[in-house]
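Suppose a colleague, Dr. K., hands you the sequence of a protein chain of 364 amino acids and asks what its three-dimensional shape might be. Before reaching for any lab equipment, you can write down a predicted structure in token form. Begin with the sequence itself:
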Amino acid sequence: MDKGDRAYNFSAGPAAIPTAVLEKAQTEFLNWNSQGCSVMEFGHRTPEFQELIDKTENDFRELLKIPEQYKVLFMHGSASHQFSMVPMNFLAPNDSANYLEQAHWSKKAIKEAKRFAKIHVQQAFEETDAGLSIVPESQWRLDEKAKYLHFTSNETIVGVQFQQEPAAFNGHLVCDMCSDILSRPVDIEKYALIYAGAQKNIGPSGMTMVIVREDLFEQMQTERVPTLFQYPLMAEHGSLYNTPPSYGIYLASLVFEWLKDLGGIAAVEKLNIEKSKLLYSYIDQSDFYHSPVAVNSRSVMNVAFTLADPKLDQLFLSQAQQQGLLALKGHRDFGGMRASIYNAMSIEGIKALIDFMKKFEQKS
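The predicted structure, expressed as tokens, is then:
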């Protein structure tokens, strides 16, 4: 491909950012909002930055229909920070919480949570004749006295996604929604807290969005939590207790504008379903490619697949990259291939990938 061309980036994260967003950011890089300097250089205590963060939050609320009783926080760091922040805020040492063990990221969340309280773990994935599946909720055994149930809505490693919120627990739901936030409508009122690292559907890495019910603040264990890890304090200060991830907030604002221009979450969901069906349909009709995930548990965001002969994996990746199809290597825990097709991936990118896969199969 030519040096000036944009590749199709299938990275699981940091992931593709819409080209239109990057182009607008490029034009404003040296002179944001006619201020004569970059937004990265601009003071976060100024009225202009306050206007930016307010608009970014309002657009986020509008897209996800977030009720007033929820606070939206722009937090430093990654979702991995939330693996500790959630139990630190919600749990006293003698409290307990339910965690669904799904794969790589949920295991990390469980490991961190066990530092702070009693954690009841429920295995949520199982191998079936149809492929990797979510264990039916009727088989779950949960601690009904637990403070919350933590789960990952979309597991990126192999591409397993909850099609709806778990209903087996009567208490609070806490969700790691990193890889499918803003990809489909969400009933926010079913959750006590949602967190999502920015680097998949929101913007660049280094920032995490948190949506949390304000009425739960009085129950939180803030007296033993470091200042910058306290949800109530960050909410009280409008995410501006300390210098915020200002450039991440700025780019998120552009992404939210882009999503609204597309028609909002309903329109984006329709496009995402179309993209994933196109790719899965091709994989399923092939004897050369295989999806390891059962149809009813498949992710719309991360499509994992294997080749008939693993010895061809490196050749596949090398030739794909030559065609401008990047980051298709599967996670080290799974191997094979993985096409992460978040909101920014176009239908043209999916068609280009399928076209390459057809030609590679024919040659092999």
